[in-house]
């Protein structure tokens, strides 16, 4: 018991860091021990005694808090998948066990949710950069989203309607072209977005017919 008492140290100061007021310098027995984030330091008070194990616990909590704040900063730019957050933390040499703790904390606070991420990705693409289900699934896999979540996220996509909408807008640029060039350019455009031949052909034929009918109507005016 005497040896255990020798291992106990007293907190003699908790001072804000000059360069970062969100962090605190912890002093034990009159000497600097380590820097802590405010949230960790808020649990402490001057005069409190801590032993070696408690000091190690503080250090571990600080490592996790720094990793958590790094993850929050990474998420502040745009939504991220779980795999993206994990990859960013690994890039900064955060230990695997700490990464798992951070991910669990983010999920508990609804800050990382792969299903919501996949849904938002599909909705954004459909509104601004339409793609086929196959291309969307490929993009989401690159983000580390599991196949079962991907299947749910893309299940409601009406590819024919989506392809027609984007094709109609693009076809205006090809107005006045001969049939061969119109078909080639519009088909290539839709192919690059992942739509298959069975979807593309009737859409190209329909838009060509509409374009010709509109041109004829204008000629009669």
Task: Kindly describe this structure.
This protein has three domains: 2-108, Arc Repressor Mutant, subunit A (Orthogonal Bundle); 114-154; 159-220, Orthogonal Bundle (Arc Repressor Mutant, subunit A). The protein starts with a helix and ends with a helix. Helix 6 crosses helix 8. A four-stranded antiparallel sheet has the order 3-2-1-4. The protein has helices at 2-6, 38-41, 52-75, 82-91, 96-108, 114-128, 133-142, 147-154, 159-171, 179-192, 197-220; strands at residues 9-16, 23-28, 31-37, 49-50. It has 221 residues and is of the alpha+beta class. The protein is built from eleven helices and four strands; from the N terminus they run H-E-E-E-H-E-H-H-H-H-H-H-H-H-H. The relative contact order is 0.07.
How would you summarize what this structure contains?
Helix content is 63%, strand content 10%. The chain contains eleven helices and four strands; from the N terminus they run αβββαβααααααααα.
Strand order of the largest sheet: 3-2-1-4
Inertia-based shape: rod-shaped
CATH topology of the largest domain: Arc Repressor Mutant, subunit A
Oligomer: single chain
Supply the CATH class of the largest domain: Mainly Alpha
Residue share in helices? 55-70%
Structural class: alpha+beta
* Rg, alpha carbons: 29 Å
Helices and strands in order, then pairings?
Elements: H1 2-6, E1 9-16, E2 23-28, E3 31-37, H2 38-41, E4 49-50, H3 52-75, H4 82-91, H5 96-108, H6 114-128, H7 133-142, H8 147-154, H9 159-171, H10 179-192, H11 197-220
Antiparallel strand pairs: 1-2, 1-4, 2-3
Describe this protein with a few key phrases.
221 residues; alpha+beta; Arc Repressor Mutant, subunit A; 3 domains; four-stranded antiparallel sheet; 11 helices; disordered N terminus
């Amino acid at each position: 018991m005497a040896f255990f008492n020798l291992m106990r140290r007293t907190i003699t100061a908790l001072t804000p860091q000059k360069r970062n007021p969100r962090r605190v310098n912890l002093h034990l027995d009159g000497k600097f021990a380590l820097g802590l984030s405010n949230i960790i330091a808020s649990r402490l008070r001057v005069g409190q005694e801590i032993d070696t194990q408690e000091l190690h616990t503080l250090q571990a909590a600080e490592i996790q808090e720094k990793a958590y704040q790094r993850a929050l900063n990474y998420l502040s730019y745009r939504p991220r998948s779980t795999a993206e957050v994990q990859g960013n933390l690994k890039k900064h040499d955060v230990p695997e066990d700490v990464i798992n703790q951070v991910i669990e904390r983010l999920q508990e606070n609804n800050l990382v949710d792969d299903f919501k991420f996949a849904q938002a990705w599909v909705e954004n693409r459909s509104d601004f950069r339409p793609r086929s289900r196959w291309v969307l699934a490929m993009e989401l896999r690159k983000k580390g989203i599991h196949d079962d979540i991907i299947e749910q996220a893309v299940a409601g996509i009406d590819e024919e309607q989506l392809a027609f909408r984007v094709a109609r807008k693009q076809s205006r640029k090809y107005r006045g072209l001969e049939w061969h060039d119109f078909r080639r350019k519009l088909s290539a455009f839709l192919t690059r977005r992942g739509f298959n031949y069975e979807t593309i052909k009737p859409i190209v034929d329909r838009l060509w017919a509409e374009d010709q009918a509109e041109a004829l109507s204008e000629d009669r005016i």
